[in-house]
Amino acid sequence: xxxxxxxxxxxxxxxxxxxxxxxxxxxxxxxxxxxxxxxxxxxxxxxxxxxxxxxxxxxxxxxxxxxxxxxxxxxxxxxxxxxxxxxxxxxxxxxxxxxxxxxxxxxxxxxxxxxxxxxxxxxxxxxxxxxxxxxxxxxxxxxxxxxxxxxxxxxxxxxxxxxxxxxxxxxxxxxxxxxxxxxxxxxxxxxxxxxxxxxxxxxxxxxx
Length: 208
Ligand code: OGA
Ligand code: MN
What we know:
Mean pLDDT: 91
Largest sheet: 7 strands, antiparallel
Strand order of the largest sheet: 1-9-6-11-4-3-2
Shape: globular
Distance between the termini: 61 Å
Radius of gyration: 18 Å
Helix content: 10-25%
Number of helices: 3
Bound molecules: N-oxalylglycine, manganese (II) ion
Oligomer: single chain
CATH topology: Jelly Rolls
Low-confidence stretches: none
Order of helices and strands: HEHEEHEEEEEEEE
């Protein structure tokens, strides 16, 4: 896609950016079909909120079901997707000095009328998630279908439809967002570009 070069600038300026027609058509079809097959095969699990001992399932807060991509079992379609995001990761490192080192991703399916309440993607105890990436696999999506990704920005609300072949990036630490309920099933790939977790600084005892 041609808007590539503007992505780092826009992300730095406004904290979020939308890329339309992110992938070649056949790749999007392959991802959508794969997600649908995995859903039908029962591979998705109810998503949880929080981490570790705080992890809990609360479908009122978050109603999606997810299927994590495992690095040792990536499919051809997933590989293509991850390769494109790798290019983006390097671009952001080059222009914004972000030190992003890895990615993670999962399929997400929101059954009809489910939502994800307003939240931040960065956990307090896990600051590695730096850029959130959401890619949508829903053809012919219209405003009356609902399911908007709603960004809560200082200047107001920004609603984005989960439209086919659209990639949305935003800063995980700063941008509160939510997923509104939809009248249709809503399918996407959610992921994060991550920086290295901070290593504990060794205490050096000075010898006097
Ligand atoms: C998430 C999320 C947004 C979307 O999974 O954390 O906020 O539009 N997803 O699916
Ligand atoms: Mn989120």
